[in-house]
Structures are given as C-alpha cells and as structure tokens.
Amino acid sequence: MTTACIIAARRSAVAPRGGALGAVEPWELGAATIRAALADADIDGHRIDLAVYGNALYAGGNPARLATLAAGLPERVAALTIDSQCCAGMDAIALAAAQVEAGHAEIVLAGGLESYTRAPLRMRRATGDETGPVPFDRPPFTPWPERDPDMLEAAANLAAERKIDRRAQEDYAIASHARTRAARSHLANEIVPVAGVHADTFARRLDRRLCGRLPVVAGDPVHGLSAATVAVEADAAASVIVMSETLARQQGLGRRALRVLATTSLGGDPAQPALVPIDATRRLLAELKIRADDIAVAEVMEAFAVQAMACIDGIGLDPAIVNPGGGALARGHPIGASGAILAVRLWQEMQTLPTGSLGIATIAAAGGLGSALVLKR
C-alpha cells in the first residue's frame, strides 16, 4: 500500500467569535490557507485530485467546495465537507491519507474551516402543538437525551469525578497562555495573514489573581469551570497537503515530508466524550507497538483544561512535550477546524526534530468520539 505523507501545513490565526475575523466567511479563511499551502509546496492547483474539509457550524451546503473555488482551484477538483464536530478537521486529514494510501489519489488537500461568527441561526419547523419555528443551539449528538449532556456539564462532571480542582485547572490554563505568548514569533511561520490578522488574538497575561476573580460557569465551587478553563468559541481554518511519499521524493519534497504513520477514529461513552481520545490514542500506540514515552511531541486538544489534563494523564504523555506552542485555551476553539489546527501545529513542531521522531495529535468530539493521528519525521 502507498505511504501517505504531509508536505505542507498552514493555518489562519484563531480569533474569538465576533472578533478580528468576524467579517470573513469560513470558505474565505479556508481559501487563504489553501493558497499558502500550495505556495509552500510549489504545487499548482491543477495537480490536486480532491479536497476534504471538516466543518460543523455552517448548517449544510459544501463549504469545502466554496473554499477550493475561492482559492482558484480548477472546477474539476471535487470537494467534500465532513461533519464529525470537533474531530472533523482531523478526520478530514485521515480520509485524505486513506485516499492516497489506497491509490485513489496522489495529492489531496485536507483540513478544517469554521466561523462561529458567521454561523447561521438554527431553527426547526414546528410540529404538534408548537406554534412556530423552534430555535436551537445545537443538534442532538445521541438519540438519548439523558446521555447527550451539554459539553460544559460533561467537563464539570469529569472534574468532580477525577477530583481535579479549579486551581489545578487554572494553573494549566495559565501555562497554556504563557506558552502561546512565548511562541508568538515561532507560530508566525505557520499563520497565513487574513484580514490583516497575523497572530492568534486571544492569548494574554493570565495570572492567578485574575483567575481567582472569575465566576464558576459550570460545576461546584471546588472543581468548577471558569472562563479561563474553557476554550472560547472562535473562527479559523487550516489546510495540509497530503501526497504519496514516492511522489514527494520525486518532487524533491522529502525533507519537508512527514509520514502519516497511522490515524484512527473511535467511539466511546457519549456522556463523557472528553475521555475518548485516551482510548483512541492508546489504540494507535498499540497498533504501532510504541509507547507514550516514544513520542517526541504531542498536540492535545484543550476544549477544557480538565479534558486536556485527563487525556495527558490517561495516555501517559510527558506534560513537557504537550502543546509546546500553547493550546486552544489560549487560542480558541473553531470546532470543525480545531483538529486540523492541531495537525498543522504538530507538523510545524516536527520540522526541526531528528529523523525518526514521532508526534501525535488527538481530539474529542460531542457524542463520544475521539480521533488521533501519528506522524513520523
């Protein structure tokens, strides 16, 4: 079977909902990252066989198609949008790799694009005794209301069950912001300027005093979540180019290429989705016959501080190698793009590592889903 590799990886800045990217449509964000990735790899858009992108909030249509057309790709390039919520961007990359490995395509664009700001308002038609259209914030993620918790509620329950107190969560968030601020010049290498935005806009000087003044938004006073320990809703996009390793070497791109060693998407308990990445990552490690200690760098989603903390501990990762450029607590969470942003971050971090180094990225999604991928230098 053909080996797939990633030869280019770019993203936009991440900006909170209603912020600096609020006037930009999600496909425009995607198009900017597509153009940048193609330029980095010196690949003409006419050579792309397929585009696969994750999106969760656009409420239909095919924003991947809009993004490829807006980026100037030929009309013959098919585009597919997938929705597995927060996992969608990473799942899109996994699907792209599978297309290349199976020999169905040689070069595939993949990633995620999302705009909380531009997301349509959602309503469903009235039924029964209802007198008019009924608004809703999100669709159901399971057929059982009692096992379809609000994500804040699920994370707060996890904190209480694992006895991860509010102070520990806030310490984690403070460190995430500090890493992001310290890495600002390094992160600039992967960020495509869009609408004049050159850097992630949310990271700040978060400290213990500020965290102590924030009210609890979910959970009890001891283990509860605050605004500091929950990732903000955000706008962003990310793109990678997946290519066969043989073609990458022929094109002289072998130095940049990172092999997609393995990917997985796994289901778990819908009532506690934050923990599913643990099993997904363990499955990959077992398949590859490697240990968590063999991983040189990891990107773990920070939708909630408690989620990231539980996953790092459950997988057995060294916290020192996790999210070296900060995480979503300091950037924001653009749902369908978040998994792709993790992949871009991982690819960029691994560019300077020695040959043979391994990196992993993992993310959870509502409904009890977890996705992970392993890259090799």
Automatic annotation (TrEMBL):
<keyword id="KW-1133">Transmembrane helix</keyword>
<dbReference type="GO" id="GO:0003988">
    <property type="term" value="F:acetyl-CoA C-acyltransferase activity"/>
</dbReference>
<dbReference type="InterPro" id="IPR020617">
    <property type="entry name" value="Thiolase_C"/>
</dbReference>
<keyword id="KW-0472">Membrane</keyword>
<dbReference type="Pfam" id="PF02803">
    <property type="entry name" value="Thiolase_C"/>
</dbReference>
<keyword id="KW-0812">Transmembrane</keyword>
<dbReference type="InterPro" id="IPR016039">
    <property type="entry name" value="Thiolase-like"/>
</dbReference>
<comment type="similarity">
    <text>Belongs to the thiolase-like superfamily. Thiolase family.</text>
</comment>
<dbReference type="InterPro" id="IPR020613">
    <property type="entry name" value="Thiolase_CS"/>
</dbReference>
<dbReference type="Pfam" id="PF00108">
    <property type="entry name" value="Thiolase_N"/>
</dbReference>
<keyword id="KW-0012">Acyltransferase</keyword>
<feature type="domain" description="Thiolase C-terminal">
    <location>
        <begin position="260"/>
        <end position="376"/>
    </location>
</feature>
<feature type="region of interest" description="Disordered">
    <location>
        <begin position="126"/>
        <end position="145"/>
    </location>
</feature>
<dbReference type="InterPro" id="IPR002155">
    <property type="entry name" value="Thiolase"/>
</dbReference>
<protein>
    <submittedName>
        <fullName>Acetyl-CoA C-acyltransferase</fullName>
    </submittedName>
</protein>
<keyword id="KW-0808">Transferase</keyword>
<feature type="transmembrane region" description="Helical">
    <location>
        <begin position="356"/>
        <end position="375"/>
    </location>
</feature>
<feature type="domain" description="Thiolase N-terminal">
    <location>
        <begin position="5"/>
        <end position="201"/>
    </location>
</feature>
<dbReference type="InterPro" id="IPR020616">
    <property type="entry name" value="Thiolase_N"/>
</dbReference>
